[in-house]
Amino acid sequence: MMTGHFRTLVLISALMGLFMAVGYLIGGEGGMLIAFLLAAGTNLFAYWNGDKLVLSMYGAREVDDSTAPELVGVVRELAGRAGLPTPRVYVIDTEQPNAFATGRSPEHAAVAATTGILRILTRDELAGVLGHELTHVRNRDSMTMTIAATIAGAVGMLAHFAFFFGGARDEEGRGSPFGAVGAVAMIILAPLAATLVQLAISRGREFEADRGGAEISGNPLGLASALAKLEAGAQALPNLQAEQHPATAHLFIVNPLSGGGMQSLFSTHPSTEQRIERLREIAAAMGQSRGWASAPAAAGPRHPSHSSGSVPSAGSRRAGPWG
Description:
The chain has 323 residues and is mainly alpha-helical. The protein is built from 10 helices and 4 strands. It has a 4-stranded mixed sheet with strand order 1-2-4-3, sandwiched between helices.
């Protein structure tokens, strides 16, 4: 049975191997060597700067006690319960309700929540979501998933590069061993393989983070209720940044990508129904009722009811679910 750290090493190595395979397609052995160096550099960059890159992709803005006192207060309280330093807190201006954590260690972590999630969740539900994300931080999942997102995105870009240069020949007249047909196959298969590796990294971690979130918040039914709302919201409201950067989808607490069919089959998240049922079992073991802590509500308005520049807080109770 592989330990979590060893499994992570194997999976990240698989992504690097895929990166090298695309390099081999483009330029043979020389291309594979260059791809290896690029993969190593990508790993180092993702380790030190992956959190900043992901937050920048989503236009996240940092908030503090003066701009979002209640949100920051909840994060601080839960971090104390989890025995963690208080992470930096960010808000993403999008109506889709969602959240993620990133950072290379608990001392360099960040938690990001969308304006949509702040608009539709009760305080207990939000505490469950934030507890989930802090569990990722505590388990150092956020580092692994950020690195995986960065490499998977690079694999996709390199595969597109292979499509245009797969038939190129080196100075000795040797071309790609697979030719144009291989290039077309790679542009299809490489991103798919990267997604499968992300799936292997992410699905089990989501169940563990749900359990940790239930324990940290003390309210598994609050998290279960939140997941039901978030799933409905993600289906009803698009996340344009996530659609543009699908390699980052596994970072979020629920899949931010729209659509079904094959995309659902290869989702990096386990089904929300399974997650809710497990949380109900945890609640029963804790002596709590299997019913909802609060009735799941609709995913919120399709159009903002207030400026995206404001964050629901203790001083703006009419704008959101905070009171």
